[in-house]
Amino acid sequence: MSTQFYTQDQPATSQPAARRPHRDGPSWYRIAAVIIGAVAAAALIVLAISGLTGSSHPAPAPRATASQPASPAQPSAPSANPAQPSAPAANPAQPTTPAVPPSAAVKTLQQQLGQLNYYEGPVDGIMGPQTTAAVKDLQRQAGLPQTGTMNPATQAALARYLAHGNNQMAG
Questions:
Q1: What is the pLDDT of residues 114-150, one digit of tens each?
Q2: For residue 171, what pLDDT is reported?
Q3: What is the DSSP track for the chain?
């Protein structure tokens, strides 16, 4: 016994469902999607490569529009007040020059501290962090307040150690 139901809508004969007519070639939507995808992939590759290699060109400064005033961090003219000279903008790609020029007295100090094994840095005449640390070590060894600056008591201790030795290497 068969369980077929008859409805008015359905034809009595079994014919395959009607199909849309087949068009030759891909649809324009597919072509557009492939082109957009290729352009997006190429843009991502270019961005990735430029991000990996880094840019040697600085980013352009933002332009001021009529509704947006120019940035106060970038003055358009040098300071007219000689007591407040305009500082040049720091460029992280280029080393900055020291604010204090090298000093012959600091070079001599660095050489003397080096003779006593307090200072191991370059003898460049600049009172930098290594020189300050060496002075503090000398002051600690001499029982003086550790200020990191040369004062008469520190100068006397340095002269005494240079003349008689500081006995730093013993024990």
A1: 999 999 989 999 999 999 999 999 999 999 999 999 9
A2: 37
A3: -------SSS-SS--PPP-PPPPSS--HHHHHHHHHHHHHHHHHHHHHHHHHH--SSPPPPPPP-SSSPPPTTS-SS--S-TTSPPPPPP-TTSPPPPSS---HHHHHHHHHHHHTTS--S---S---HHHHHHHHHHHHHHT----SS--HHHHHHHHHHHHH----S--
CA distances to 36, 109, 134, 144 from 159, in Å: 78, 11, 15, 14
pLDDT at 170 over 50: no
Distance CA 161, CA 140 (A): 13
- What pTM was estimated for this model as a whole? 0.42
Which two three-digit tokens encode residue 148? 């990191």
- Per-residue pLDDT band at 25 (split at 50, 70, 90): low
Q: State mean pLDDT over 98-103.
A: 75
Alpha-carbon separation of residue 62 from 49, 65, 87 (angstroms): 24, 9, 20
Q: Which residue has the tokens 């008689």?
A: 164
CA–CA gap between residue 136 and residue 155 (Å, rounded): 12
Taking only Cα atoms into account, the Rg of the chain, rounded to an integer number of angstroms, comes to 40
